Amino acid sequence: MLQVKIKDDTGNTIGQNIRKSRNIGQTALVRDLQLLDIDMTREALVKIERGIQHIQLSQLKGIRDVLQTTYDELLEIH
Fold first, then answer.
1. Where on the phi/psi map is residue 12: left (φ > 0), alpha (ψ -120 to 50), or beta?
2. Which end of the chain is more exposed for a tag (fewer CB within 10 A), N or C?
3. How far apart are CA 21 and CA 3, in angstroms?
C-alpha cells in the first residue's frame, strides 16, 4: 500500500488544529485510531502535534473520522 506523507509547510497548522479539535485525550485518540487499523502511537501523535513528524494521509483521515471533524478544519490556516 502506498503511504502518502503530508508535509505541513505553513508552520504546523495541522498539528495545532488536531490539538484544538481534540475533545478526547491523546491515549484515547490513539486507541481509537488503532481500532480502525491505523498505524499510530502516542509518541507519533505528539510529534505530529508539535510539527516534528509528517502525518500520513491515512492518519489524517482517521483523525478526521475519530474527531468527527472535517479536512477543512484540520487544514485551516490561522
1. left
2. N
3. 24
Chain mean position to CA 65: 10
Asked whether the beta carbons of 45 and 26 are under 8 A apart, the reply is yes
Handedness of CA 4, 64, 21, 59 (dihedral sign): negative
pTM recorded for the entire structure: 0.85
Give per-residue pLDDT as tens, 1-44: 567 666 666 677 888 999 999 999 999 999 999 999 999 999 99
Collapsing DSSP states into helix, strand and coil, what is residue 55? strand
The answer to whether 56 and 47 have CB atoms below 8 angstroms apart is no
Q: Which residues of 34-44 are buried (b: 16+ CB within 10 A; e: fewer)?
A: eeeebebeeeb
Q: Is residue 30 classed as helix, strand or coil in its secondary structure?
A: helix
Cα separation, 34 vs 32, in Å, equals 5
